[in-house]
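Marked as duplicate of an earlier ticket. Keeping the data here for the record.
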Amino acid sequence: MGIAVARSFMGWLALLIYALATPASAQSAPGVPPEGYKPPEFWNGVRAGDSYDKVKSLAGWYQCGETPRPKLCTDIKGPDSKPEVYELEFQNNKAYLGAHYILSAPPVWSTYKRFNPVQDANTTLLEIGSNPDFIDFISEHYHDRASGIVSKAARLLAPENDDKIYSITYVNRPFVTGDYRDQIAYREILPAETFVMKVGKFLWKSQPATRLRVTLSPADRKILFPEYCIDNCKSWKLR
């Protein structure tokens, strides 16, 4: 997390602020997949929309929760052989949300780097939560506060400040320029097959952990979960 990381971040920031406009991908009507659509993969071949019974029948998956929604888990050995757990949450019997729990609570930034090894224009940071700063990159971009982004984020890249970060939210796609007032507006233009990832500190079963939360984009929710779409998918009502 030194000069190389700082340079890659600055390269991303330059793209964020100065890149040429790129048209947003066309959105499908609720419940209608685009041609060639393949639901995004949560973990080892398990995809969004897979049924509870299908996933449970796979080796290594077991029931790990019923409230507020059914959950299945699988145990994983991390790169240092420490225990990790991947949890799937289901809506209407279909895989809806993933959460990768790394027990031993490593720093948030190192977990982000592990699941996003290429830190350049392939990533769009949405926000960094820290003590004392919270950086909403989309809002800062909308209000043309580039200097504010640089000064705040540069401090968080310093190794001595690593423990101050409590969450990082990002998308593994290049930034698409446009007039997006906030993250909600930006997520709406993300194409299908896009995950929104959030790494954060988490207390799970009374044991500290870092959690990588894997959330479907609105485009994928419209295709896979149209039954929860309200008012042309301006809002969602989950059971």
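See parent ticket for discussion. The chain has a mean pLDDT of 80.
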